[in-house]
Amino acid sequence: MASASIGPGLHSVIRHASVYELERDSEIDGLRVLIMRLWLRGVRRERVDVWLKDAAPSRELLDEYNHAGLTWQEFERRYRAEIVEQRPHVLEQLKALEREHGLLILLCHERIPPSEYCHRLTLAALLSSAT
């Protein structure tokens, strides 16, 4: 599981992981936040504490990235714009959860590796820079 500290001297931490790679009875005390638009097959509700659908990229953006050849750089730029310009409440909600719980674990289906990129990395970076 990877992590990114939100700043020097602060106790909050943002981590990210594939929901499939979390230990069933993980000893991690963080709040597990699923940031996907659709619930994942085979994932029990107990493995996720909060499901924040609005934190996921739009269906249109995902379709362009997965099926129309959109580059990761363009996907990331547009995803950042979606969150910052169209859904700033997502960052506010995640920051509030982070203040309340200290450790957030952003979850989606993507495993890193083998995949190099995932929107949860971009969202974690946005949260880290928004403090």
Tell me what the structure shows.
There is one protein chain. This protein has 131 residues and is an alpha/beta fold. It contains 4 helices and 5 strands. It has one domain (2-23, 57-129). The chain has helices at residues 59-67, 72-86, 88-101, 119-129; strands at residues 2-5, 13-18, 31-34, 50-51, 103-108. The protein has a 5-stranded mixed sheet with strand order 1-2-5-3-4. A hairpin with a 7-residue loop joins strand 1 and strand 2. The chain starts with a strand and ends with a helix.
Radius of gyration, whole Å: 14 Å
What is the count of helical runs?
A: 4
* Weakly predicted, low-confidence segments: 3-11
Our count of domains comes out at 1
Q: State the assembly state of the protein chains.
A: single chain
What general form does the structure show? globular
Name the helix and strand elements from N-terminus to C-terminus, one letter apiece: EEEEHHHEH
**Structural class of the secondary structure composition?**
alpha/beta
Major sheet size, sense and barrel closure: 5 strands, mixed
The overall pLDDT average reads 83
The number of E-state strands comes to 5
Q: What is the helical fraction, as a range of percent?
A: 25-40%
Beta-strand percentage range: 15-25%
| Gap from first CA to last CA | 22 Å
**Strand neighbour order, sheet with most strands:** 1-2-5-3-4
Helices and strands in order:
Elements: E1 2-5, E2 13-18, E3 31-34, E4 50-51, H1 59-67, H2 72-86, H3 88-101, E5 103-108, H4 119-129
Parallel strand pairs: 2-5, 3-4, 3-5
Antiparallel strand pairs: 1-2
